[in-house]
Amino acid sequence: MPSTPLHDMQAFQAALKSSKHIIAIAGAGLSAASGIPTFRGAGGMWRKYDAMSLATPEAFSKNPSLVWQFYHYRRETALKALPNAAHFSLAVLSLASARENVAPDATFTLITQNVDGLSARALEQTLSAHTAQSDVQDEALKLLEMHGRLFDVKCTSKSCGHTEFDTTSPICASLAGTEALIAAGDAEPDIQVAELPRCSKCNALARPGVVWFHEIPLHLRAIRSLVNRADLCLVVGTSSTVYPAAGYASQVQENGGKVAVFNLERSSGDEEANFLFLGPCEETLPKALG
Ligand code: BJW
Ligand code: ZN
After folding, report:
1. How far is the CA of 146 from the centre of ligand 2 (A)?
2. Where are the extended beta strands (E) located within 53-147?
3. 84 CB near ligand 1 (under 6 Å)
4. DSSP of 272-283, one letter per residue?
5. Using an 8 Å Cβ cutoff, are 279 and 264 in contact?
6. What average pLDDT does range 246-250 have in this prediction?
7. Are 228 and 23 in contact (CB under 8 A)?
8. SS3 of residue 85 by DSSP
């Protein structure tokens, strides 16, 4: 069992300062203060549906109209949302020239399960406020969006597979306004497949470029190598119930690294953490990271 005092901010900051390879694993709680609903618990319903049951390949095959309406609603919500203080704290940690409480030569990578793009926007804004070219060149190494991106639109035809980043609002005319049908029990329109988003290359049905259950998450090779060398792992706003992300913190500990959990409430596996900061991460992270 870990022997470090669980809630000791000074001890955490000493660990932060002495770490060489830091990673953060983030989940939906990171974006909760930006108004993005979480998956499980209070935020996990969309209309009358359990959000988890819509985020599957089976749901898309069975009812692409319903699943596209769900993702259209989430795209519109994310477009209106702004990164919060927790996103910015993590973005600052990425920038050697901006951060203070970390060793000058330490590395940091944020591995996020979130698809809302808010961490990328926080990183872009933080980068543009700090002009050092060396920071800009390393940007791709600092954020890995392992469950894809809401704004990637991906062809369903295996022979094509074209994906493009598209923030058009609405993504297609037939979905316009469907995001407003939020009253529980409202009948959603049954949109014909021909009217749903289509691939710009081959005109096949397109799907959201996110990773559903039983699909392979992205950037796994890079993540494996980061997890293997990490000596500190921050676990931020995730229920730690979805694999492989849920297994990364214990892998870091097995390699001798430390784990710090930032969550509103108790979460799976947090009894093993070296540090546990309960509360909204938009408050606890800025305090902890300085
Ligand atoms: C706050 C807060 C605030 C609120 N401040 N905190 C091993 C064992 C068992 C099962 C498996 C296994 N390996 C694989 C599986 C199967 C499956 C799985 O994990 N199933 C489990 C449910 C048991 N995994 C997969 O299928 C994955 N693929 C896979 O494993 O491929 C095989 C393979 C892997 C590796 C190598 C080779 C092969 C794919 C998983 C894809 C998950 N997709 C989704 C949808 C993405 C698209 C979309 O967004 O629509 O990803 S599901 C959903 O869950 C979404 C999330 O990213 C993910 C995690 O949820 P998250 O972020 O933790 O959210 P919540 O809501 O659960 O928690 C929020 C937390 O925030 C709570 O704790 C709150 O308290 C907290 N909070 N406000 C701080 N202000
Ligand atoms: Zn195509």
Report:
1. 22
2. 107-112, 143-145
3. no
4. G-SEEEES-HHH
5. yes
6. 98
7. no
8. helix
